[in-house]
């Protein structure tokens, strides 16, 4: 069985000045590359043959299969393990006839149609790309994005055809590439193909081994952002126990919550975070994201008043948070309101992996491309989804994360379970930024729901990566505090409600949560 997990495609033209190709290849193999494709786009046959022969000898020493790009004759001449064919190369059926039985045949695919043809041709594997933009190849077809790769993978269900993603894959986006490239049916990638990051370096061994580490971390952790592999059984009771535990943990540990949010609700969000016992930092500048990710408990990204400088920060902050396995809570405020927001949301979700996505019905409909619910500005209009439970579950599956749909009733799903919460008060709808502060509450709870990852003491015994509980906890803290605030005599309307809400959030007790939580798990 061929191991496609870390697939090196060569590109001698990318080598740094003075770097020897054969040395680079050997180092990449030492670092853990599992399959090699030699790709020579502008080389005469004689030289190609020579490079292929010497590459084959090196790969043989590491027991790694060698695949030849385009050239069936070269593959035959060097007894390569396989050939890789583009859409304009020799058809698979003819290459099959020419090559010895058992030769691997891979095909480049960019669309559903090309993939379906590869299935008909019974290719051994497909290279799906380009996932990200790249300058290594002159792209003539659209960039697919990780979510696009996920959709294509579904047509490989029931076949034994393997799939690798290619195009712009680097250690910085590998985790998102792996998490995001999964179909609704849970069909995942068998590997990733990398050219420039492994070729345009003087340290291919280190780069390969870093890529390997990310691949293993993804496999072994089921990681924080991978909601689909988290704990399998929940009941209303166990969820409330978990939420109460997380709530006390927030107060004990005082996690730092980095929030890139909008300038309407920034002060409310910071105050709410403090009231829960966490520490807000509202930094937006790209240059400080790496540093902040080192000390961060969780990241909240809210696009409420998106400006381009903050956008850069969002891209970087999420990437750093993924690399450090800190949860990212994403609030795509008003995503349906403009094309600009829609593009920004798509780009962000194709760049890093969110752990939780939170929105109202209109926002989630826009995000999922459903026209069942519409939005006006940042608010949704109409009566909501006919089947909100299935809707949130499907969005959670598609986005590979926990999804929170807020409204009179809140729906929260990890892709399997759906929690239906009916706490809250109408005064929450009469102040600005109630959705945004819900994001702050979720991020505060999620920060400790994943903290055992960092090797800190696990006194709370919280499940690693339990962002489902974190999201439920954040919503319950806010909605129950809202109920308590509304019952106070000094609260006369929305103006007096907000300070009372802060008071109630800061004194919210375990008993309040246990007595008032109205939760159903379906
Ligand atoms: N094929 P890098 S993209 C060789 O989309 C190749 O089929 C692609 O290089 C496709 O890892 C690509 O440097 C180049 O971005 C990938
Ligand atoms: Mg080709």
UniProtKB/TrEMBL annotation:
Keywords: ATP-binding, Kinase, Magnesium, Metal-binding, Nucleotide-binding, Thiamine biosynthesis, Transferase. Its cofactor is Mg(2+). GO terms for biological process: thiamine biosynthetic process. Pathway: Cofactor biosynthesis; thiamine diphosphate biosynthesis; thiamine phosphate from 4-amino-2-methyl-5-diphosphomethylpyrimidine and 4-methyl-5-(2-phosphoethyl)-thiazole: step 1/1; Cofactor biosynthesis; thiamine diphosphate biosynthesis; 4-methyl-5-(2-phosphoethyl)-thiazole from 5-(2-hydroxyethyl)-4-methylthiazole: step 1/1. CDD domains: THZ_kinase, TMP_TenI. Residues 6-197 form the Thiamine phosphate synthase/TenI domain. This is Thiamine biosynthetic bifunctional enzyme Thi4. It comes from Lentinula raphanica. In the N-terminal section; belongs to the thiamine-phosphate synthase family. The keyword Transferase applies. One of its GO terms (cellular component) is cytoplasm. Condenses 4-methyl-5-(beta-hydroxyethyl)thiazole monophosphate (THZ-P) and 2-methyl-4-amino-5-hydroxymethyl pyrimidine pyrophosphate (HMP-PP) to form thiamine monophosphate (TMP). It comes from the Eukaryota. It catalyses: 5-(2-hydroxyethyl)-4-methylthiazole + ATP = 4-methyl-5-(2-phosphooxyethyl)-thiazole + ADP + H(+); 2-(2-carboxy-4-methylthiazol-5-yl)ethyl phosphate + 4-amino-2-methyl-5-(diphosphooxymethyl)pyrimidine + 2 H(+) = thiamine phosphate + CO2 + diphosphate; 4-methyl-5-(2-phosphooxyethyl)-thiazole + 4-amino-2-methyl-5-(diphosphooxymethyl)pyrimidine + H(+) = thiamine phosphate + diphosphate; 2-[(2R,5Z)-2-carboxy-4-methylthiazol-5(2H)-ylidene]ethyl phosphate + 4-amino-2-methyl-5-(diphosphooxymethyl)pyrimidine + 2 H(+) = thiamine phosphate + CO2 + diphosphate. GO terms for molecular function: ATP binding; hydroxyethylthiazole kinase activity; magnesium ion binding; thiamine-phosphate diphosphorylase activity.
